[in-house]
Amino acid sequence: MKLLLTYLAALSAVFGDCSHHNAVFKSIHGADHECSLYLREGTCHSADCSLRCRGLLTRYWNDTVAVPSATINRFYLPSAHDYEYYERTECCLGGVKEKVPLEDVCRRAEASTDCYHRNYGQLQADTPTFVPFTDLQHQQILQDCIDIHQIPESVLVGYVKHGIKLYPEAKCLLRCFLIREGHYTDAGGPDLHRMSVQCEGNYSDEEFRKKASKCIRNLQEQCIDKCELAFRISDECVNGEIALLSVFLGASNTTSNSVTVSPSNTLVLPPKVTSVHKTDHECTVYQQHGVCTTGECSLRCRGLLARYWNDTVGSPAVTINRFYQPGVHDHEYYQRTQCCLTDIKVPMRDVCHRANASISCYNQHYGHLQTKVPEFVPFTELQHEQILQECIDILRIPASILAGYVKHGIANYPEAQCLLRCFMLREGLYSDAGGPDLHRMSVQCEGNYSEGQIREKASRCIGDLRGQCLDKCELAYRIAEECVNGDIAVIVVFAGISTKLTTKLNVSPSLNVNVNGPSFG
């Protein structure tokens, strides 16, 4: 089983019922459109690598293996009377392995995909299908659930060491994890198709599905609380070929490795974006029966999901203001809100009451709460890392180039400028046609996007650069460097995540500075 390498950041992702989960769905046409953005002139290798890019975005391609994973079949519909499509496809793939070198990843992707086109069945190019999560995305979702449920580090280390079965808190954490990944609902149980795609299981095995469904029905009839039910379904009904419980434990183990506390032996029940309306709905799903505490923690949960609350700081980030509309003639709303926040006497450790009191200050003084207006949710560090890694894979940036621009600067590496462009495109912070989204960039970096003077200066700078007919990569870089690198420092975020990845790779920087443009591959 593949243990997977964040959110949500896909530009042409198609969502189903996403009211309480982060699952992403892509069609072939949607993925191809994304690739056409990232691999445009000045950003792509001389060879056609679009089919490899498609496989990377839909998570069925890996350069190390250099053949599609079995989950590519979710995009194809075999003929009802064709009983040899699988054997023909495998035979064709065998020929590709013999004839096309492993290191020629673009040709391997093209030839392998062609095997499916010619032998497996009809390509369903317009049908969105579930895209598996990566390791970093698993870690982010697990961390969200840990924060929502206030799981102590000792409990995390405890269930990793002693098993989920002994910790009711861990069962509630697993339920939250499964729900946020779109693999499970309390009403419908597990989504066997998505779980199988996630774990590369065989969801077409009718015998397995019947056996799992019978097991699930038996457990649902026992009136078990929701956390226990989610755990037992994962442990008893779908923990064979579809081993999502192992994925959860893998993410938990990675997270617990950074924790230095001793495991807890105390078994205690746990404390019981987006728009405000949507985050509140998510919180009610995660904090339902058997999961919530007697205290009121829903406003803290709202802040966690909308990324304006942090327990360590104990007060909302300035980006909470994007959910409020001050009165046109009210010129003192900011001062009143700050005065209210200063007067809060709730201890820092009482995070739920601090969140309630802080958000009440905004409700009373800042302006009208816009409950149903969707707002941009800032990316976390794990999500930044995932998106940067995807762009590195798509553009085939060598590790030496990554280390090179971290040490010597982006200006010296055209490849790094293309990587920055891809990073901003995938985060929805920039487009070639419209330039930077100053509102989103400011929310991401906690800048002040309401200052007209800052916006006017940035707009003038962007207009001047556009008049110079720069290639797309250099234009994106220079806009980020020269026009929005003060209060809105997206380029600092990019450099920080790049440095983190470079530290992991431990390679020497490239000194080959290509003044004629990017040279990928």
Helix content: 40-55%
Output the structural class.
mainly alpha
Rg, rounded, reads 25 Å
| Basic shape | globular
Subcellular location: Secreted
Signal peptide: 1-16
Pfam family, one: PBP_GOBP
Keywords: Disulfide bond, Secreted, Signal
What does this structure look like?
The protein is mainly alpha-helical and 521 residues long. It has four domains: 24-131, Orthogonal Bundle (Recoverin, domain 1); 135-256, Recoverin, domain 1; 296-376, no CATH class; 381-505, Pheromone/general odorant binding protein domain (Recoverin, domain 1), CATH 1.10.238. Helix content is 52%, strand content 4%. The chain contains 22 helices and ten strands. The strands form five sheets. The chain has a two-stranded antiparallel ribbon with strand order 1-4. Strands 2-3 form a two-stranded antiparallel sheet. Strand 9 and strand 10 form a beta hairpin. Helix 16 (381-395) packs across helix 18 (414-426). The longest helix has 16 residues, at 351-366. The model is unreliable at 1-18, 42-46, 265-273 and 289-295 (pLDDT under 50). Belongs to the PBP/GOBP family.
SSE topology sketch:
Blueprint: E1 24-26, H1 28-38, H2 50-58, E2 76-77, H3 85-99, H4 105-119, E3 122-123, E4 129-131, H5 135-149, H6 153-162, H7 168-180, E5 184-185, E6 189-190, H8 192-199, H9 206-220, H10 226-237, H11 244-256, H12 276-286, H13 298-305, E7 324-325, H14 333-342, H15 351-366, E8 368-369, H16 381-395, H17 399-408, H18 414-426, E9 430-431, E10 435-436, H19 438-445, H20 452-466, H21 472-483, H22 490-505
Antiparallel strand pairs: 1-4, 2-3, 5-6, 7-8, 9-10
Helix pairs in contact: 1-2, 2-4, 3-4, 5-7, 5-11, 5-16, 6-11, 7-10, 9-10, 12-13, 13-15, 14-15, 16-18, 16-22, 17-22, 18-21, 20-21
